[in-house]
Write a structure and sequence with these properties.
274 residues, mainly alpha
Amino acid sequence: MTGATRLRQAVAVARVELRRILFSRRSPALYLVALLPGLLLGARALALAIQGEQRAPDIAGATTAWAVIYQTFVMRFVIFFGCVGVFGNLIRGDVVDKTLHYFFLVPVRRDVLLAGRYVAGLIATTLVFCGSVLACLFLLYLPDGRGPALEYFTNGPGLAQAGGYLGVTILACVGYGGLFAVLGIFLRNPSIAAVGVLGWESINFLLPAFLKRFSVVYYLQSLCPVPVAEGPLAVIAAPASPWVAIPGLLVVTAALLAVGSWKIRRMEIAYTSD
């Protein structure tokens, strides 16, 4: 089988899987998770709008508030659990539904099947969560008025910061997606492992500098355009350079998918054990 043939097959698999992720019975859960930060900022915008002219524009305060919301809520919980739901079910979902054997009977290599599904999951989560981030940024600066907001984005750092948050969002989907796609192959219930991963990511600020490097959130935080103080109990560590963080996440994700490809080629279907 040539590389071109594998590529065509992976694209075909990705198209089918993308429709399933975005328009299946599991899709509403993904959209609901992505809507949570928008609902929070929408409530904030409504509360500030009620104040009307009594409130002066506060672009700096809004920027700081978003940095905290993004790093403590959007990145650590919204994107995290969205990736658990999407990537953890790329293979495990068919095992639960007892439909995986149909895909294994198709003349497509199993590693190509995994690659196509991973790409579909990455496209879906990127579209949904990047859209959520853009909506949040709109709601964030809406109470400050059109003039100050446009000035911040055209002549200030607003546009670069927005691009930075979108880039971090994509990398979060890449890293967490690769991790949970592989866990979904090895484990009967990846959600249990996800709780352990969440715990490790949540205590990252308490870990020594050496151990911080064994987490996704450390590299994502290093790339965030606006730093956030982690509190008096945090163990201070130098942020990772973009030249280390970005290639590092990509290489680790590729290694995880290679392990997943090895496992799925040797996978035996035993629905009765699930």
